[in-house]
Each structure stands twice: as C-alpha cells, then as structure tokens.
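$ ./design --mode recover --in tokens.txt
reading tokens...
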C-alpha cells in the first residue's frame, strides 16, 4: 500500500537533513503508532507521504504511484490532519459544500456519526469553535472522507480528558480492513490501546516496525518491586510499585503493551530490538 523509498529531505539546501535515506513500508489496514524523539522528522514524514513536500532524493509510493505527482486519484484517497491548522470562519455546511466533493467516498451519515461521538452536531459555525472543538470537527470530516490512508499528527493535543476518551472510541469504531491510520504522537498513553502496529524511528532509521501482537509475544511488560528482576530486565524505569520493566517473554505469558517503556527501550538499546525482531521488517 505505502512504500517510503530511500527518502532524503531538508527544508533548505544547506540545512541539516531531517530525513536521510529513510525507508518504511506500511500495509493496508490497521492503526499505526509513529513514535520518535522531538526533531526525528515525524511531522515532516507525514507531509512527504501526503505529497505536500518534495524530497531531495527518494520517493513515496502510495498504491504504486508517487504521491508528489499529486494526481487527483491519489489526493482523494489520502487525508492529513496536521497538529496545527486553520479552519475558515464559516458554517460547517458551507465547508462541506466546498470540500466534500473532492473525496468520492465522503459520507454525510458518517460525519454525523463521528460528530455524535464528540457530542457535537452538524449545525456548527467553524469560526465560533474552540481549538479543541475545531480539532474534533476536522477529525470528524477527515474520517468521513473514507480515504484509504489517514495521517494524524498529535491528534489528542488540545483535547480534554473526555475528548481523549471520545477520540479512542472515534478511532476504534471506524476501522476497516481497507483503511490505514498513521498516528504520530508523543502522548503515547492516549493511543497505546488503539494500535495494531508500532513504528519507532530515530536518526533516519526505523528501529521497530512491528505488529503489537508480535511485540507482546516477544516482550513482557509488567510492574515489580523485586530488585533482582529489575536488575536483570532489558529496561526499567521507576514507578509507584517499584519499577515498570520489560523482559523477554520466554514463558508465553499474556502481557499488555507498555508503549512508553517500549519506546525508551528502543532508543536506549536499539541493537536489542534489532536482534529480537526480524531485520527485514525494520525497513531501514
């Protein structure tokens, strides 16, 4: 479905390269969490995938078509929700008249259903909404476009606690086998239970690109106060119960993904992650 092929990009000719010979593959279907340090290039990658930026080298192929060609059939099947955006000060119905027709699978019924999850209705004036409400309205429109690929950059920023809970229901209730959603975020606890797949990137390398079920089959995440367990763990960090640890799941125990500690382990000990998971899946 999506292939990022040896991508290099910097915003100015002599600037530091944001991405340098970066590659990644994303299959159809599923919710992908895209994690990385500040400045790792996550937002830039999303814009390159959407065809909004031109790489210095390499290409992004979506269904075997270079997204930078910006063909109508490609643009109508990809939607990006940036972290920051501006909506016109007009009624939602006027916004829909101007924009919905660009997306052949747009559904007004889906839009109403999405807005209901956020306790909103279609009788909105976009200019009168708070930033959090605008984000809810824009995400509802984005999902109602029914594109095969939806890109979301820090979607829970600006949402209150009920809004974040609604966001999780919003995503979980609208997945299909044909749709892929890539969520770039630092708010890992807002999305960890939504994910089918985890992508962790650092310094233009993919440290991990794996299904959540394979991660939890391979690694075990739990809380412990045992000094010997903490000492022997692959990675640990202090918690109220002693420490949150990750160990090898050598007994086949059921375990719930701790996305935060998986991210820290991947950055601190990338060679362990590479050795434990199939290198062919890393797409470096």
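writing sequence...
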């Amino acid at each position: 479905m999506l292939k990022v092929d040896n991508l290099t990009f910097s915003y100015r000719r002599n600037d530091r390269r944001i991405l340098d010979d970066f590659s990644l593959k994303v299959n159809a279907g599923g919710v992908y969490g895209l994690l990385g340090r500040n400045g790792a290039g996550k937002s830039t990658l999303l814009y390159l995938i959407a065809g909004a930026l031109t790489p210095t080298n390499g290409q992004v192929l979506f269904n075997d078509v270079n997204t930078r060609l910006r063909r109508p059939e490609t643009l109508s099947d990809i939607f990006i929700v940036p972290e920051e955006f501006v909506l016109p000060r007009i009624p939602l119905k006027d916004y829909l008249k101007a924009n919905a027709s660009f997306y052949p699978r747009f559904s007004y019924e889906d839009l109403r259903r999405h807005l209901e999850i956020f306790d909103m209705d279609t009788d909105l004036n976009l200019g009168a909404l708070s930033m959090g409400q605008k984000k809810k309205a824009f995400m509802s429109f984005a999902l109602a476009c029914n594109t095969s690929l939806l890109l979301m950059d820090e979607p829970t920023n600006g949402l209150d606690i009920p809004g974040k809970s609604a966001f999780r229901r919003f995503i979980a209730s609208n997945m299909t086998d044909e749709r892929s959603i890539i969520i770039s975020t630092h708010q890992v606890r807002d999305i960890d239970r939504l994910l089918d797949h985890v992508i962790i990137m650092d310094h233009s390398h993919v440290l991990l690109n794996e299904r959540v079920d394979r991660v939890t089959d391979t690694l075990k995440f739990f809380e412990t106060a045992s000094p010997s367990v903490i000492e022997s763990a692959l990675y640990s960090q202090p918690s109220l119960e002693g420490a949150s640890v990750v160990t090898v799941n050598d007994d086949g125990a059921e375990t719930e993904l701790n996305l935060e500690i998986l991210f820290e382990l991947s950055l601190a000990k990338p060679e362990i992650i590479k050795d434990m998971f199939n290198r062919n899946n890393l797409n470096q």
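exit 0
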